[in-house]
Every structure is written in C-alpha cells, then in structure tokens.
Amino acid sequence: PTCTLDADVLLKQLIYKGKAYHNARAWANLANSEAEMGIVSLNNNADFDVVANATIKENEDIVWRMSGDVRNADLKGLGLSETQSKGSLALTGDGVVNLSKQAYDINLSLHQLEWSVPDMSVNTSSLDAKVLATDSIIKASIYNNNDLKADFVSYCSIDTFVAKMVDATAILDSQIVARR
Q: E strands of the chain, at which residues?
C-alpha cells in the first residue's frame, strides 16, 4: 500500500486564553516512504521553528533527523504556566525507531540553553541525551561537556514505562489535591 500526504496550514489568527496569535505555519509531506514536516511560529511568546525528515525503510525502521531553533518560549505568556518559565535553545536530534519491534535509538542535543524559572536560571552551552530501548529494556543517558552525567535503566518496554508514568502522575496529582 502507498500513502501520500501534502499538507500546508497557515495560521491567520488563533485566540487562546484571550491572546491573539498570528504568523504561524505548519506543513507535512509524505511520498515514496519519505516524510518532511515543520512548524514555524513568529509570535512573541512562541517564536520558533522546527523541521524534521524521515525515511520509512522496508523493515519498518523509521530513520529520522530534526533540528529547531526556539528563539523565545514564554510559558507564562502563553498561559501554560502560572509562574515565570521562559527561555531559548537550539535543538537537534536523529535516530532510528521501529514501532512494531519497540526498538528506539535516539540522540537529542540542546545547544545554547537559557531557561528561567522563579529563583533559578539554567544556562548551558550543550546538553545531550541518548536513549536505547528494546521491548525489554530502556537505557538513557543525559550529559553535557562540563559536570553532568546521569544514566537511567528500566527493565521494561517504553510502552510499559510510559503507561506506568501516567499511572504515577495520576497518583501524585491525587495526593497533591488531597493535601490542599
């Protein structure tokens, strides 16, 4: 079976929490097992662009690459946070994913990260993450070129891990509500 897609969306105006957003575009193209997609926003509280491409192989591997530039993201300004949470960064990523085998090999890099929340600012020239996962184990590492290295291992699939995290979040949310 073949599938083709050619979509291009131009946002003329969106009202969200009483604020108007303009100047945004999203697109996606898929043909002959090749995909390209992207989004551009030139709004004050959401000024960014992200592009990605992927190739779907005969063995169902999805080989992908992405890059983006977040010039300004202000979560409080967007109405997504009650407290200050804003910043900028550049990002790149690539990897191979096979959903039917639950196999993931993902590399992500953040560059020139500057983020501010109340009483704290994070500034780093680079932060990298690597995820290797199969249907029975997840190995992840986060590191930068200075003083951070963290490793994570879980003996389950990503699907199981995400389901358990959703369950844990619901439990935490109910405990927070009970304390109020």
A: 5-11, 14-16, 19-21, 24-31, 34-43, 46-56, 62-74, 86-98, 103-117, 120-133, 138-143, 149-154
101-122 tens-digit pLDDT: 989 999 999 999 999 998 889 8
Instruction: Write the pLDDT tens digit of every residue in 8-53.
Output: 999 988 888 788 888 899 999 999 999 999 999 999 999 999 999 9
Q: Count the neighbouring beta carbons within 10 Å of the beta carbon of residue 7.
A: 10
Q: Can you say how many angstroms the Cα of residue 115 is from the centroid of all Cα atoms in its chain?
A: 16
Dist CA 171 CA 63 (whole Å):
36
Closest CA to 131 of 119, 120, 139, 143: 139
Instruction: Find all residues with CB under 8 Å of 52, minimum gap 6, and list them.
Output: 35, 36, 37, 38, 64, 65, 66, 67
Its pTM stands at 0.79
Q: Decide: 22 and 45 in contact? Cβ < 8 Å.
A: no
What is the maximal distance between C-alpha atoms in the chain? Answer: 55
Structure tokens at 17: 């929490």
